[in-house]
Amino acid sequence: MQEAAPLRQQNGIFENRAFTRPSNGASLSCAILVVGGSTAAYTTALMTAQANLDVILVQPTQIVGGQFTTQALPASDDGDLLKQKITLHQVAGETFAISRFQKAFRDRQRQLQPVNGKVVDNPGGGWVSPICTSPVVAATAMNEAIAPFLARGNLKLVPFAEPVDVLFAEPRGERRRVVGVVFRDEQTNARFTIRAQVTVEATDLGDLLELGNIESRVGQEARHETGEAALPEKAIPMAQQSFTFGAVVELAQPGKGIPIGAPQGYNQEPWMKAAEFESEFWMKSGGKWEPRPRPFLDPYGIFRYRRLRRVSDDLKTILPGDVTVLNWGQHQHGENGPWLCGNDYRLGELVGVSREERRLHLKRARDRTRAYVHFLQSRGISLKPRGDLTWTHDGIALEPYIREARRGVALTTIRHEDVSAAFFPNQARARSFQDSVGIGDYHYLDLHGNDEPGHASLPGKQVLTLPFTLPLSALVPINTDGLILSAKSLGTTHITNAAYRMHPVEWAIGEASGYLAAFCCWLNLSPREIATSEAQVRRVQGLVTRNGIPIFWFDDIGHDDPDFEAIQVMAAAGVVRSVSASDLHFRPQANVSRAVVATALVNVMGFTPTRPATPTFTDVPPTHWAYGNIEALAEKQILAGIGGGQFAPSQPITRQQLGYLVRRALPAAMETAFARTPQDRQPLTRRELSRVLYEVLRHRLGIASRG
Prior knowledge:
This protein is about 25% helix and about 15% strand. The longest helix is centred in the middle third of the chain and has 24 residues, at about 355-380.
């Protein structure tokens, strides 16, 4: 059979033969249906296509990528850890804080947008992000990754379509199950149906939840709904995050700008008042206001904030020909000054309203952005819209940048108390969920509130976050089968969505959604059956980490480490974590004490700690932190002391001694557990402990074969 010719693309858009356009009344089927044009929709489709499953991705435009592309925001909102460089004590942030897939995407962006012939870390040089490129470059890189699967045919891309109905099977006495979705082609008005074994809700606004009347929440919840103490007693559904139409503009030579023109109603309608706009902004340094505002073209002003292209090799130099995306929120204009804004749209909502009202606010938000560009041009700033980079005529984004969606009620809801630094004093991590299938990091809960009164206040450390994890159970609806929650519709709250919505995290959410969907198909199990089985959760965790996706925060173990899978899964499972909770180090070469090994073995075997009245060992009294674990192993005659009635809990253990323990606890695991670790008298390292006990866990759970 002749192999299909490689797919071509131009300006980030595939040639026509890459797309599938179902006719009116058509019915298609696939293993996995991904619905939405979000970043997570793209990564879900990429992961499942790589797994050699039949996948259909249905989205509202021809362009994949969401916030990186159609929403014109390819300036990644990275947490501080992702920006870190390699040192003696840690690996580079792009090696431990994101997956190898996401790193490859970032590297390809850099290659596609060199600066004066050189590949650089930050091609655009924006000051808010360590990597900024144009939307076209982001789309081109994303297209390259999925092109082989589109050409092969196991991935189909259906553009210009919106969901209009969700189809269910409702067996008597069982939960209802999503079996397909009905779509309408926005260009041809054709209605068609796609049935799938698993459907992934990856729309930017959670539309499948609304269409299917699936358990969900809108806006700011009530305290009794989520248990978050920062919330009021009464829910405020219309208290949502604002959304924004970005505008990509070039700095032109003085007098050479191209006027965008004032929209009708400029400076009259409340969403286009010139007095609310700003071209310069005030900043605090060291907790004090700076003596003067920063001009628009200041090295740390609004233009360079999300600059996407630069002419100069120097990061801080701004020259004609530089390109930025205007995506500017609300700021206080100096001490006791007014609150001014850019193009954030705060006067209405997109979720929980009629489609007619949604269209109204979308138009007003787009007009607001046009008004903001006009305002800047009227202040003498020479700007030229770059519609060639946004696939529009005026440089305003094809789609709005969405910060909040309708959220599904999931098996696990990620709450404020799970991520905020206020609830984890003297710790380096937020809650590490034992069913983690991804990680995320953003330094604070970035809530761009709209104008609805009653938004919750998060004072002090309550607004700060620590590195967090993504529980698999947050992807699973509480009472609906056949559906996986992804993008911004997973089980977060109004508060925690403000951290989980960031670019690198949404990418990771899509990766996790994709692997969960693949497992459902391979094993013919529902998402719920996988999420509620320890064995299946560990299998999913093994697969994602084997493919270079981190699920636990360690800054000295990268996704290219040969023991990455074992170390990550053992940490997520709570078996072998950090020496100290106050840092992110794993310390792979550090020795391991006998008490630590005893505790880890109890955890990996699922034993229950025991606390006899009389200690077995004189040096392990009931007050010792590992007393119950050591006694549990002694009761089962798995371990013995060093003689004289002592155990020596703080003494380093050897590889040979660990072998004795494993042989007594689970003899069948010995061969694979020590396949790469000699049983000699050398002190055992933490790396080796994770490697050995990971195989013990796999044997205990009956998942010894790789898959």
